[in-house]
Write a structure and sequence with these properties.
The complex is a heterotrimer. Chain A is mainly α. Chain A is 72% helix and 1% strand. Chain A has 13 helices and 2 strands; from the N terminus they run H-H-H-H-H-E-H-H-H-H-E-H-H-H-H. A two-stranded antiparallel sheet of chain A has the order 1-2. Chain A is globular and about 60 Å long. Chain B is mainly alpha-helical. Helix content of chain B is 70%, strand content 3%. A two-stranded antiparallel ribbon of chain B has the order 1-2. In chain B, strand 1 and strand 2 form a beta hairpin. In chain B, helix 1 packs parallel to helix 3 and helix 9 crosses helix 10. Chain C is an alpha/beta fold. Chain C is built from 9 helices and 10 strands. In chain C, helix 3 packs across helix 4. The chains are: A mainly alpha, B mainly alpha, C alpha/beta.
Chain lengths: 316, 267, 257
């Protein structure tokens, strides 16, 4: 008995529509809005990677590692090489992070569940420790990043934010659609199978470890790009970016967004940014509590994230 | 109990704060300092217990049937909440109560002065560790607990009140954390964020020792402590992360920790 | 007849428990072999070793002359040896249809037809149809189409078994090892299921080994019987002879005929 629900995939169309809208309306948006959106794009990229891992049942508590690596790579480009092109920064950030993920993946892909989570956490804390002790990189103060340029041109102060936002959105669009396509390949579809029954996966002739390794590298690379982007838009880099609470924020957004769709991480990041800012404004001393309560409510009432509520609504 | 409990760190902090504030009040009132040790213990238990019971009954209980990842995230959310609750109750200023620590003085070991308090702590740790082991393996309640942990459904079918055991376990674990915080309070300044450091460290200890293994946790703790002290002494620049390095190395060699329990047959 | 699978002196011990002791068997191509024995006799251990889930302490296994002793399960599957499980191993939270699609997807991937840039509707090797059609066909053959969109974990016991076997057959194996294919299935249905499975598999030209506790099923379908006891093979003969063997009667079948 078929459930006569025809699921057509609007993701590609929606993604393009959002991008075009953003690019078109961008110049009229206030600076603070562009800032929030760019940060949301950065975080969304990290969470996009988390989504891949979550689908396979793996919760990484250490994406901050790659986020931070991406940021520091971008900063190092400016500090030591004088490069400040935003695309180069994102590319290098992503590449460094992905390479690191490739190496670490040999260890990490062997683990599941809580071991995977804690090991990833440990690795990000190792980076944190290293950075804090590193005088050359500014220790706990970190350092500032050069103002962004785009293809050799330094945009005027009014256009910088817009330029960064559109570049970021373009990268995000490509990333989201690439991941979307990946999720429709047999290797991408293995994720829920790995989560449910890894023995069966092995017995059907696929290597779960290899699949996890690949996903880890992709997630790391995405987080690196996000980190580089965040660094450019905030203008400052510090070791706090590798601290476990940063990873916790990404997890929060991932839960908020759910794993249903590649656009969800970005929407979730935007909403998170809003909640964070509101919570902080409401009461700077208890914003963590507000966050905790929000997370709790989400888990209890909307375990599949906001996106599931949205799609349930649409098909009613 | 097969749940990963980030809230554990919060109980550590609660214990530390409760002990610190009550002991400070005790001493300020001029009561005998020698009894301040009892105050530490009582304060921790009295304050932490209601929190533990409330959390387990109201929040955790309805969620046991879900994914283990869900519980992990729930305890993380609780941790965030409790961090601020602690700040609300006790404020953000640090608490110092050095008296219980200083009172016992120190004694000479191989030409160096070693604080007596620390030695007593070791004894206390051994007492609790041994006590817990005895409780689990030699008492009827303890053995039932092990059965419940292993398979709650079968236990329920045999008439064991699984809910009560879960509550007891969670409460016991949380109280131990609170006591740990209370005992550590005199040796450090009690500040916000106390829970953060300790939770990651204790996870490292448990992972190194092997999940679910008590002797493993003991060995893990000793290893972590030793490595930490050694690094502080010889290579201070790696002190912050050497623990995680050790954890990564241990897991690379013994994927389930040093003393992991045997895995039941799957196919 | 050609020997397709040659197990030589397999030994496996778990501490004090000897799961396999000098187990040797040369399986002929296209034969149907029944594995019998009490619980804990070593039948599943044998399958686990052959399929690479366990590594024997001593001994070797050769598949068409090639040593496969140390290979992991996924490589052994890719070579053409598949198995079903005593307790069905399914992807519980996915629908029956998705379970099949995943299996077929892996087959496509192993054939190099399912990379990032491949066609979405690539033809599955051996079937000549795209994945969805193959899934429908196999589910139809096993009578599972009515459960197509149900989650695997809510299936009744018999259907779970069938799905488990169906998944094992997706890759069109040369050797199929079935671990208790009819356990949990009602008495009337046992024969029907074995008939259906064997027909489907034999149409592809496969060798079948199956573990079975029901001696009637064994007598009816097996050409040869390996009787296990205490980690050893105590009889290796056609069904009638094996079931009449004194040790088999004593340890496995029961002396009351």
């Amino acid at each position: 008995m078929k459930q006569g629900r025809i699921r057509r995939d609007h993701t590609v169309a929606i993604a393009f529509a959002v991008f075009v809208l953003l690019a078109a309306l961008g110049p009229w948006l206030p600076q603070w809005a562009m800032f929030i959106m760019t940060v949301a794009v950065a975080r969304g990229l990290v969470v996009l990677g988390l989504l891949l891992l979550l689908r396979a049942g793996l919760v990484s508590f250490g994406q901050a590692l790659f986020y931070c690596l991406g940021a520091y790579s971008a900063g190092a480009l400016g500090r030591f090489f004088g490069i400040s092109d935003i695309f180069v920064e994102m590319l290098v950030g992503g590449a460094v992070a992905a390479a690191t993920a490739f190496v670490l993946g040999f260890l990490l892909a062997r683990y599941r569940g809580i071991f995977f989570g804690l090991l990833s956490l440990a690795l990000s804390m190792i980076l944190y420790g290293l950075l804090v002790k590193s005088e050359a990189l500014g220790s706990t103060d970190g350092f500032n990043i050069l103002p962004s340029t785009l293809f050799g041109v330094r945009p005027g102060p009014d256009w910088v934010r817009y330029a960064v936002l559109v570049s970021a959105a373009a990268v995000a669009l490509v990333a989201a659609l690439a991941v979307h396509r990946y999720l429709n390949t047999p290797l991408g579809r293995l994720a829920p199978a790995i989560k449910d029954n890894e023995i069966r996966v092995e017995y059907m002739g696929a290597s779960a470890r290899r699949a996890v390794h690949v996903k880890y590298v992709i997630a790391g690379g995405l987080a690196g790009v996000g980190g580089a982007l965040a660094a450019t838009v905030v203008g400052h880099i510090d070791p706090e970016m590798a601290y476990w609470t940063t990873s916790g924020e990404f997890i929060f957004i991932a839960i908020l967004a759910g794993t249903g769709n590649v656009i969800a991480p970005f929407v979730g990041a935007l909403i998170y940014g809003a909640i964070h800012t509101m919570a902080y404004d409401l009461s700077p001393n208890t914003w963590q509590m507000t966050l905790g309560v929000a997370l709790l409510l989400l888990i209890v009432f909307l375990p599949s994230g906001l996106w599931s509520a949205f799609s349930r609504f649409r098909w009613r | 109990m097969k749940i990963v409990n980030v809230t554990h760190g919060s109980f550590y902090a609660i214990g530390a704060y409760a002990a610190a504030s009550m002991t400070a009040a005790w001493l300020a009132h001029g009561y005998p300092p020698m009894l301040s040790y009892a105050v530490l213990v009582v304060a921790a238990i009295v304050v932490a217990a209601p929190f533990a019971i409330l959390i387990e009954r109201v929040i955790l209980r309805p969620l046991y049937s879900r994914d283990e990842v869900v519980i992990l995230l729930v305890t993380y959310a609780l941790f965030l909440i409790l961090e601020d609750v602690v700040k609300l109750i006790w404020g953000v200023n640090p608490y110092f109560i050095a008296e219980p620590y200083a009172l016992l003085g120190s004694f000479q070991v191989a030409g160096m002065a070693y604080p007596t308090y620390n030695l007593i702590l070791v004894a206390v740790a051994l007492f609790f560790g041994g006590g817990l082991a005895w409780l689990l393996h030699s008492t009827r309640a303890g053995k039932l607990l092990l059965a419940v942990i292993h398979d709650p459904e079968v236990s329920r079918a045999m008439g064991v009140n699984v809910g009560r055991y879960y509550l007891a376990t969670f409460a016991l674990g949380s109280l131990l954390a609170a006591l740990a915080g209370a005992f550590t309070a005199p040796t450090v300044s009690v500040v916000p964020g106390l829970g953060v450091e300790v939770i990651v460290l204790s996870f490292a200890v448990v992972v190194i020792g092997g999940l679910g293994s008590l002797p493993g946790a003991a060995v893990g703790a000793v290893m972590v402590g030793l490595v930490r002290s050694l690094s502080v002494h010889y290579m201070p620049q790696v002190e912050l992360f050497v623990i995680y390095f050790v954890m990564a190395v241990v897991l690379a060699l013994r994927p389930r920790g040093l003393f992991s329990l045997a895995e039941p047959r799957k196919i | 007849m050609a020997i397709i699978l040659d197990a030589r002196s397999l030994c496996k011990a778990f501490g004090a428990v000897t799961a396999a002791s000098e187990v040797s068997a040369a399986i002929e191509k296209d034969s149907i072999v029944g594995l019998i024995g009490t619980n804990g006799a070593g039948k599943t251990t044998f399958i686990n070793i052959v399929t690479g889930y366990l590594k024997p302490d001593r001994g070797s296994i050769a598949y068409e002359g090639r040593d496969i002793t140390r290979l992991p399960p996924r490589d052994i599957t890719r070579l053409g040896i598949c198995r079903s499980f005593q307790i069905p191993q399914l992807y519980g939270s996915l629908s029956v249809f998705d379970n099949m699609l995943i299996g077929i997807g892996i087959v496509l991937r192993n054939a190099g037809l399912a990379g990032y840039f491949s066609r979405r509707d690539a033809l599955v090797p051996g079937y000549g149809e795209p994945a969805e059609a193959v899934a429908e066909r196999i589910l139809g053959r096993f009578g599972l189409l009515e459960y197509r969109d149900r989650n695997a974990q809510v299936l009744p016991g018999g259907a779970r078994k069938l799905l488990d076997i169906a998944l094992a057959m997706v890759a069109r194996p040369r050797i199929l090892l079935l671990d208790e294919p009819t356990s949990g299935v009602s008495a009337q249905e046992k024969f029907g299921i074995m008939q259906m499975v064997l027909e489907a598999v034999r149409a592809e030209g496969a060798t079948v080994l199956f573990v079975e506790h029901d001696m009637e099923v064994v007598s009816r379908f097996a050409q040869r019987v390996l009787a296990f006891y205490d980690g050893r093979i105590i009889a290796d003969a056609p069904p009638q002879a094996a079931l009449a063997h004194p040790e088999v009667r004593r340890y496995v079948v029961g002396t009351r005929a």
